Amino acid sequence: MRGGNPFGPRLAAFAARLARRRLDLALVLGRADVRSLTGVDCDSACLLVGPGGEAVFHTDFRYLPMVRRVAPWLKAKDIRRLSFRGRRIGYESSIQVSQLMKLRKLSPRSEFVDVAEDISALRAVKTADEIARVRAAAALNDAIWQAASRRFRAGMTELDMARAIRRMMIDRGDGEAFDTIVCVGRNAAECHHVPDGTVWDGREPVLVDMGARLGGYCSDMTRNIVPSRPSRRYAEVYRLVLEANMRAIAAVRPGISSGELDAVARGFLGKNGFRKEFGHSLGHGVGLEIHEAPYAARKRTTVLEPGMILTVEPGVYIPGELGVRVEDLVLVTDSGCEVLTRSGK
Ligand code: ZN
Ligand code: ZN
Fold first, then answer.
1. Do the beta carbons of residue 254 and residue 310 sit within 8 Å?
2. What is the distance in A from the centroid of ligand 2 to the CA of 311?
3. Residue 164, CB half-sphere, CA atoms under 13 Å: how many?
4. Across the 345 residues of the chain, what is the mean pLDDT of every consecutive 10-residue run?
5. How many angstroms separate the alpha carbon of residue 313 from the centre of ligand 2?
6. Exposed e or buried b for every residue in 115-139, given b needs 16+ CB within 10 A?
7. Which of 167, 168, 176, 164 is nearest to 220 (CA)?
8. Residue 46 bridge partners (DSSP)
9. 8-124 in CATH: which number?
10. Class of residue 32 by CB neighbours under 10 A (exposed 0-12, middle 13-18, buried 19+)
11. Whole-model pTM above 0.85?
Protein backbone atom coordinates (compact mmCIF):
# COMPACT_ATOMS: atom_id res chain seq x y z
CA MET A 1 0.00 0.00 0.00
CA ARG A 2 1.21 3.50 -0.83
CA GLY A 3 0.36 6.73 0.94
CA GLY A 4 -2.48 8.78 -0.49
CA ASN A 5 -5.20 6.18 -0.73
CA PRO A 6 -8.10 7.55 1.33
CA PHE A 7 -9.20 3.95 1.74
CA GLY A 8 -5.73 2.87 2.86
CA PRO A 9 -6.83 1.86 6.38
CA ARG A 10 -9.58 -0.37 4.95
CA LEU A 11 -7.17 -1.91 2.46
CA ALA A 12 -4.71 -2.58 5.29
CA ALA A 13 -7.47 -4.15 7.40
CA PHE A 14 -8.43 -6.35 4.45
CA ALA A 15 -4.79 -7.42 4.01
CA ALA A 16 -4.62 -8.28 7.70
CA ARG A 17 -7.65 -10.51 7.31
CA LEU A 18 -5.99 -12.24 4.37
CA ALA A 19 -2.92 -12.85 6.50
CA ARG A 20 -5.06 -14.27 9.31
CA ARG A 21 -6.78 -16.62 6.89
CA ARG A 22 -3.38 -17.68 5.52
CA LEU A 23 -4.17 -16.49 2.03
CA ASP A 24 -1.37 -15.67 -0.38
CA LEU A 25 -3.47 -13.24 -2.34
CA ALA A 26 -7.02 -12.01 -3.00
CA LEU A 27 -8.65 -11.02 -6.28
CA VAL A 28 -11.29 -8.31 -5.97
CA LEU A 29 -13.52 -7.79 -9.01
CA GLY A 30 -16.79 -6.28 -7.76
CA ARG A 31 -17.05 -2.64 -8.79
CA ALA A 32 -18.19 -1.40 -5.37
CA ASP A 33 -15.68 -3.64 -3.58
CA VAL A 34 -12.80 -2.31 -5.69
CA ARG A 35 -13.92 1.26 -5.07
CA SER A 36 -14.29 0.64 -1.33
CA LEU A 37 -10.62 -0.40 -1.12
CA THR A 38 -9.09 2.11 -3.56
CA GLY A 39 -11.55 4.94 -4.20
CA VAL A 40 -11.42 4.16 -7.91
CA ASP A 41 -14.75 3.68 -9.68
CA CYS A 42 -14.14 1.48 -12.69
CA ASP A 43 -16.40 -1.19 -14.17
CA SER A 44 -13.53 -3.27 -15.50
CA ALA A 45 -11.04 -3.98 -12.78
CA CYS A 46 -9.29 -6.77 -11.00
CA LEU A 47 -7.55 -5.67 -7.84
CA LEU A 48 -4.85 -7.96 -6.50
CA VAL A 49 -4.26 -7.59 -2.78
CA GLY A 50 -1.52 -9.38 -0.88
CA PRO A 51 -1.47 -10.19 2.85
CA GLY A 52 1.23 -7.54 3.34
CA GLY A 53 -1.05 -4.83 1.94
CA GLU A 54 0.48 -4.63 -1.53
CA ALA A 55 -2.16 -3.89 -4.17
CA VAL A 56 -2.09 -3.95 -7.97
CA PHE A 57 -4.97 -2.53 -9.95
CA HIS A 58 -5.50 -4.32 -13.26
CA THR A 59 -7.82 -2.74 -15.78
CA ASP A 60 -8.66 -2.44 -19.44
CA PHE A 61 -5.94 -0.36 -21.11
CA ARG A 62 -8.54 2.30 -22.03
CA TYR A 63 -9.06 3.05 -18.33
CA LEU A 64 -5.40 3.05 -17.36
CA PRO A 65 -4.86 6.81 -17.88
CA MET A 66 -7.94 7.57 -15.73
CA VAL A 67 -6.81 5.22 -12.97
CA ARG A 68 -3.30 6.69 -12.97
CA ARG A 69 -4.72 10.21 -12.83
CA VAL A 70 -7.23 9.70 -9.99
CA ALA A 71 -5.11 7.27 -7.98
CA PRO A 72 -1.44 8.00 -8.67
CA TRP A 73 -0.47 6.09 -5.53
CA LEU A 74 -1.86 2.87 -6.95
CA LYS A 75 0.18 0.46 -9.03
CA ALA A 76 -1.90 0.05 -12.21
CA LYS A 77 -1.41 -2.53 -14.95
CA ASP A 78 -3.04 -3.65 -18.17
CA ILE A 79 -5.50 -6.44 -17.35
CA ARG A 80 -4.18 -8.47 -20.29
CA ARG A 81 -1.02 -8.90 -18.25
CA LEU A 82 -2.91 -10.33 -15.28
CA SER A 83 -0.96 -13.16 -13.75
CA PHE A 84 -0.74 -14.42 -10.22
CA ARG A 85 0.48 -17.30 -8.19
CA GLY A 86 -0.40 -18.61 -4.79
CA ARG A 87 -1.46 -21.69 -2.93
CA ARG A 88 -4.55 -20.16 -1.32
CA ILE A 89 -6.25 -17.39 -3.26
CA GLY A 90 -9.20 -15.31 -2.08
CA TYR A 91 -12.04 -14.34 -4.40
CA GLU A 92 -15.54 -12.97 -3.99
CA SER A 93 -18.49 -15.29 -4.36
CA SER A 94 -20.37 -12.52 -6.20
CA ILE A 95 -18.23 -12.88 -9.32
CA GLN A 96 -19.56 -14.66 -12.39
CA VAL A 97 -18.88 -18.35 -12.69
CA SER A 98 -17.18 -17.68 -16.04
CA GLN A 99 -14.81 -15.23 -14.34
CA LEU A 100 -13.93 -17.77 -11.68
CA MET A 101 -13.25 -20.39 -14.34
CA LYS A 102 -10.87 -17.99 -16.10
CA LEU A 103 -9.08 -17.26 -12.84
CA ARG A 104 -8.79 -20.96 -12.12
CA LYS A 105 -7.20 -21.44 -15.51
CA LEU A 106 -4.60 -18.81 -14.70
CA SER A 107 -3.64 -20.66 -11.55
CA PRO A 108 -4.90 -24.25 -11.86
CA ARG A 109 -3.30 -25.64 -8.75
CA SER A 110 -4.52 -22.96 -6.35
CA GLU A 111 -7.22 -23.38 -3.80
CA PHE A 112 -9.83 -20.59 -4.19
CA VAL A 113 -11.31 -19.28 -0.96
CA ASP A 114 -14.34 -16.99 -0.68
CA VAL A 115 -13.51 -13.64 0.96
CA ALA A 116 -16.75 -11.80 0.16
CA GLU A 117 -17.69 -11.64 3.84
CA ASP A 118 -14.34 -10.13 4.76
CA ILE A 119 -14.84 -7.22 2.37
CA SER A 120 -18.48 -6.67 3.23
CA ALA A 121 -17.69 -6.60 6.96
CA LEU A 122 -15.10 -3.88 6.33
CA ARG A 123 -17.42 -1.93 4.03
CA ALA A 124 -20.14 -1.99 6.68
CA VAL A 125 -18.15 0.48 8.79
CA LYS A 126 -17.96 3.74 6.87
CA THR A 127 -15.02 6.14 6.70
CA ALA A 128 -15.59 9.79 7.64
CA ASP A 129 -15.71 10.71 3.95
CA GLU A 130 -18.26 7.99 3.23
CA ILE A 131 -20.44 9.13 6.13
CA ALA A 132 -20.37 12.68 4.73
CA ARG A 133 -21.41 11.39 1.32
CA VAL A 134 -24.30 9.26 2.59
CA ARG A 135 -25.41 12.17 4.77
CA ALA A 136 -25.41 14.44 1.69
CA ALA A 137 -27.31 11.84 -0.36
CA ALA A 138 -29.92 11.56 2.42
CA ALA A 139 -30.26 15.36 2.59
CA LEU A 140 -30.77 15.51 -1.16
CA ASN A 141 -33.37 12.74 -0.89
CA ASP A 142 -35.21 14.76 1.77
CA ALA A 143 -35.15 17.89 -0.40
CA ILE A 144 -36.44 15.99 -3.44
CA TRP A 145 -39.23 14.38 -1.43
CA GLN A 146 -40.32 17.77 -0.19
CA ALA A 147 -40.24 19.35 -3.66
CA ALA A 148 -41.82 16.42 -5.48
CA SER A 149 -44.57 15.54 -3.01
CA ARG A 150 -45.70 19.16 -2.93
CA ARG A 151 -46.52 18.80 -6.62
CA PHE A 152 -48.49 15.58 -6.29
CA ARG A 153 -52.08 16.14 -7.37
CA ALA A 154 -55.22 14.05 -7.70
CA GLY A 155 -55.26 12.56 -11.21
CA MET A 156 -51.56 11.78 -11.30
CA THR A 157 -50.59 8.15 -11.78
CA GLU A 158 -47.98 6.25 -9.80
CA LEU A 159 -45.74 6.47 -12.85
CA ASP A 160 -46.16 10.27 -13.05
CA MET A 161 -45.07 10.60 -9.43
CA ALA A 162 -42.15 8.16 -9.77
CA ARG A 163 -40.92 9.95 -12.89
CA ALA A 164 -41.11 13.36 -11.21
CA ILE A 165 -38.88 12.04 -8.43
CA ARG A 166 -36.52 10.32 -10.87
CA ARG A 167 -36.08 13.50 -12.94
CA MET A 168 -35.12 15.52 -9.87
CA MET A 169 -32.62 12.86 -8.83
CA ILE A 170 -31.00 12.99 -12.26
CA ASP A 171 -30.93 16.80 -12.28
CA ARG A 172 -29.60 17.23 -8.76
CA GLY A 173 -27.55 14.10 -8.10
CA ASP A 174 -26.36 10.91 -9.75
CA GLY A 175 -29.91 9.61 -10.30
CA GLU A 176 -31.77 6.91 -8.44
CA ALA A 177 -30.06 4.48 -6.07
CA PHE A 178 -32.86 2.03 -7.03
CA ASP A 179 -36.12 2.19 -8.96
CA THR A 180 -38.44 4.54 -7.08
CA ILE A 181 -41.50 2.78 -5.65
CA VAL A 182 -44.82 4.62 -5.61
CA CYS A 183 -47.92 2.76 -4.41
CA VAL A 184 -51.39 4.27 -4.38
CA GLY A 185 -53.89 2.87 -1.89
CA ARG A 186 -54.05 -0.91 -1.69
CA ASN A 187 -51.12 -1.30 -4.12
CA ALA A 188 -48.96 -0.66 -1.07
CA ALA A 189 -50.00 -4.06 0.28
CA GLU A 190 -47.50 -5.52 -2.16
CA CYS A 191 -44.07 -4.50 -0.89
CA HIS A 192 -42.40 -4.73 -4.28
CA HIS A 193 -45.15 -3.09 -6.30
CA VAL A 194 -43.90 -1.57 -9.54
CA PRO A 195 -45.40 1.88 -10.25
CA ASP A 196 -48.07 1.64 -12.96
CA GLY A 197 -50.96 3.63 -14.38
CA THR A 198 -52.98 3.56 -11.15
CA VAL A 199 -54.47 7.04 -10.70
CA TRP A 200 -54.35 8.78 -7.33
CA ASP A 201 -57.70 10.23 -6.33
CA GLY A 202 -56.08 12.61 -3.85
CA ARG A 203 -57.69 10.90 -0.86
CA GLU A 204 -56.05 7.49 -0.74
CA PRO A 205 -52.76 6.98 1.08
CA VAL A 206 -49.60 6.90 -1.06
CA LEU A 207 -46.43 5.02 -0.13
CA VAL A 208 -43.17 6.24 -1.66
CA ASP A 209 -39.84 4.43 -1.26
CA MET A 210 -37.02 6.46 -2.79
CA GLY A 211 -33.26 6.94 -2.66
CA ALA A 212 -31.13 9.56 -4.36
CA ARG A 213 -27.55 8.68 -5.23
CA LEU A 214 -24.93 11.38 -4.80
CA GLY A 215 -21.16 11.24 -5.04
CA GLY A 216 -21.48 7.52 -5.73
CA TYR A 217 -23.29 6.84 -2.43
CA CYS A 218 -26.91 5.83 -1.89
CA SER A 219 -29.74 6.93 0.37
CA ASP A 220 -33.02 5.19 1.15
CA MET A 221 -36.27 6.38 2.71
CA THR A 222 -39.94 5.43 2.75
CA ARG A 223 -42.67 7.93 3.48
CA ASN A 224 -46.43 7.77 3.30
CA ILE A 225 -48.88 10.47 2.33
CA VAL A 226 -51.44 9.91 5.04
CA PRO A 227 -54.93 11.07 4.06
CA SER A 228 -56.50 13.75 6.24
CA ARG A 229 -59.33 11.34 7.01
CA PRO A 230 -57.82 7.86 6.90
CA SER A 231 -59.79 4.71 7.61
CA ARG A 232 -59.62 3.60 11.22
CA ARG A 233 -57.66 0.54 10.21
CA TYR A 234 -55.11 2.58 8.22
CA ALA A 235 -54.69 5.07 11.06
CA GLU A 236 -54.13 2.24 13.53
CA VAL A 237 -51.59 0.45 11.31
CA TYR A 238 -49.75 3.69 10.57
CA ARG A 239 -49.48 4.51 14.26
CA LEU A 240 -48.10 1.05 15.08
CA VAL A 241 -45.58 1.00 12.22
CA LEU A 242 -44.35 4.46 13.14
CA GLU A 243 -43.97 3.39 16.75
CA ALA A 244 -42.10 0.23 15.69
CA ASN A 245 -39.77 2.42 13.61
CA MET A 246 -39.15 4.79 16.52
CA ARG A 247 -38.66 2.02 19.07
CA ALA A 248 -36.08 0.35 16.83
CA ILE A 249 -34.28 3.66 16.21
CA ALA A 250 -34.16 4.24 19.97
CA ALA A 251 -32.54 0.81 20.35
CA VAL A 252 -29.74 1.42 17.81
CA ARG A 253 -26.42 1.62 19.64
CA PRO A 254 -23.01 -0.01 19.48
CA GLY A 255 -23.09 -3.51 20.97
CA ILE A 256 -26.63 -4.50 20.00
CA SER A 257 -26.80 -7.22 17.39
CA SER A 258 -28.68 -6.59 14.16
CA GLY A 259 -30.92 -9.56 14.96
CA GLU A 260 -31.83 -8.07 18.35
CA LEU A 261 -32.65 -4.80 16.64
CA ASP A 262 -34.96 -6.60 14.20
CA ALA A 263 -36.65 -8.25 17.18
CA VAL A 264 -37.43 -4.88 18.78
CA ALA A 265 -39.71 -3.87 15.89
CA ARG A 266 -40.92 -7.40 15.16
CA GLY A 267 -41.80 -8.06 18.80
CA PHE A 268 -43.73 -4.81 19.07
CA LEU A 269 -45.74 -5.38 15.89
CA GLY A 270 -46.30 -9.03 16.82
CA LYS A 271 -47.63 -8.09 20.24
CA ASN A 272 -50.08 -5.79 18.50
CA GLY A 273 -51.39 -8.46 16.17
CA PHE A 274 -49.21 -7.96 13.11
CA ARG A 275 -46.64 -10.72 13.27
CA LYS A 276 -47.26 -12.28 9.87
CA GLU A 277 -47.97 -8.95 8.19
CA PHE A 278 -44.37 -7.76 8.74
CA GLY A 279 -42.92 -10.14 6.16
CA HIS A 280 -39.48 -8.68 5.48
CA SER A 281 -36.43 -7.88 7.54
CA LEU A 282 -36.04 -4.65 9.49
CA GLY A 283 -33.23 -3.11 7.51
CA HIS A 284 -30.02 -3.21 5.55
CA GLY A 285 -26.78 -1.33 5.27
CA VAL A 286 -26.48 1.45 2.69
CA GLY A 287 -23.32 2.80 1.05
CA LEU A 288 -21.89 2.37 -2.41
CA GLU A 289 -24.68 -0.14 -2.90
CA ILE A 290 -28.29 0.15 -1.82
CA HIS A 291 -28.23 -3.19 -0.05
CA GLU A 292 -25.06 -4.12 1.79
CA ALA A 293 -23.97 -5.24 5.25
CA PRO A 294 -25.06 -4.96 8.00
CA TYR A 295 -28.39 -6.70 7.53
CA ALA A 296 -30.91 -6.33 10.35
CA ALA A 297 -32.91 -9.52 10.14
CA ARG A 298 -33.99 -12.44 12.28
CA LYS A 299 -31.06 -14.52 13.51
CA ARG A 300 -28.42 -12.09 12.21
CA THR A 301 -25.63 -11.73 14.73
CA THR A 302 -23.71 -8.74 13.35
CA VAL A 303 -22.88 -6.50 16.29
CA LEU A 304 -23.47 -2.83 15.49
CA GLU A 305 -20.43 -0.55 15.60
CA PRO A 306 -20.01 3.21 15.33
CA GLY A 307 -19.76 4.20 11.67
CA MET A 308 -22.27 1.66 10.40
CA ILE A 309 -25.16 3.06 8.37
CA LEU A 310 -28.38 1.10 8.02
CA THR A 311 -32.07 1.49 7.38
CA VAL A 312 -34.82 0.93 9.93
CA GLU A 313 -37.91 0.03 7.93
CA PRO A 314 -40.68 -1.91 9.61
CA GLY A 315 -43.85 -2.41 7.57
CA VAL A 316 -47.29 -3.96 7.76
CA TYR A 317 -48.97 -5.29 4.63
CA ILE A 318 -52.55 -6.50 4.54
CA PRO A 319 -53.26 -8.13 1.17
CA GLY A 320 -55.90 -6.40 -0.91
CA GLU A 321 -56.28 -3.67 1.68
CA LEU A 322 -53.32 -1.54 2.68
CA GLY A 323 -49.60 -1.30 3.27
CA VAL A 324 -47.51 0.99 5.45
CA ARG A 325 -43.73 1.16 5.76
CA VAL A 326 -41.71 3.86 7.47
CA GLU A 327 -38.03 3.85 6.61
CA ASP A 328 -35.21 5.98 7.93
CA LEU A 329 -31.48 5.87 7.42
CA VAL A 330 -29.44 5.89 10.64
CA LEU A 331 -25.76 6.21 11.47
CA VAL A 332 -24.52 4.28 14.49
CA THR A 333 -22.61 6.66 16.79
CA ASP A 334 -20.55 6.08 19.96
CA SER A 335 -23.60 6.50 22.17
CA GLY A 336 -26.57 5.56 19.99
CA CYS A 337 -27.44 6.77 16.53
CA GLU A 338 -27.97 9.81 14.38
CA VAL A 339 -31.02 9.74 12.11
CA LEU A 340 -29.81 10.88 8.70
CA THR A 341 -33.33 11.08 7.24
CA ARG A 342 -34.95 14.35 8.24
CA SER A 343 -38.27 14.23 6.40
CA GLY A 344 -41.32 14.42 8.65
CA LYS A 345 -43.22 11.20 9.26
ZN1 ZN B 1 -36.36 1.88 0.74
ZN1 ZN C 1 -34.46 -0.03 2.29
1. no
2. 6
3. 18
4. 76 98 96 95 94 95 94 93 92 87 89 96 97 98 98 98 98 98 97 94 97 98 95 97 98 98 98 97 98 97 98 97 98 98 97
5. 7
6. bbebbbbbbbbbbeebbebbbbbbb
7. 176
8. 58
9. 3.40.350.10
10. middle
11. yes
CA of 177 to the centre of ligand 1 (A): 10
Among 109, 326, 94, smallest CA distance to 225 is for 326
The ligand minimizing its distance to the Cα of 291 is 2
CA of 34 to the centre of ligand 1 (A): 25
Q: Whose atoms come closest to the Cα of 181: which ligand?
A: 1
**Where in the chain are the domains?**
8-124, 128-339
CA of 287 to the centre of ligand 1 (A): 13
Distance 290 CA to ligand 2 centre (A): 7
Going edge to edge, which strands form the sheet with 206-210? 181-184, 206-210, 221-225
Q: How far is the CA of 334 from the centre of ligand 1 (A)?
A: 25
Q: How many CB atoms lie within 10 A of CB 206?
A: 22
Contact indicator for 89, 25 with CB cutoff of 8 Å: yes
φ and ψ at residue 110, rounded to 5 degrees = -80, 155
Q: How far is the CA of 40 from the centre of ligand 2 (A)?
A: 26
Å from CA of 24 to ligand 1 middle = 39
What is the Å distance from ligand 2's center to 232 Cα? 27
Position 333 scores a pLDDT of 98
Q: Which positions ≥6 away from 324 have C-beta within 8 Å?
A: 188, 205, 207, 224, 234, 237, 238, 241, 315, 316
Task: State the distance from the centre of ligand 2 to the C-alpha of 325, rounded, in angstroms.
Answer: 10
CATH fold of the domain at 128-339 = Creatine Amidinohydrolase (3.90.230)
d(Cα 167, Cα 164) in Å, to the nearest integer? 5
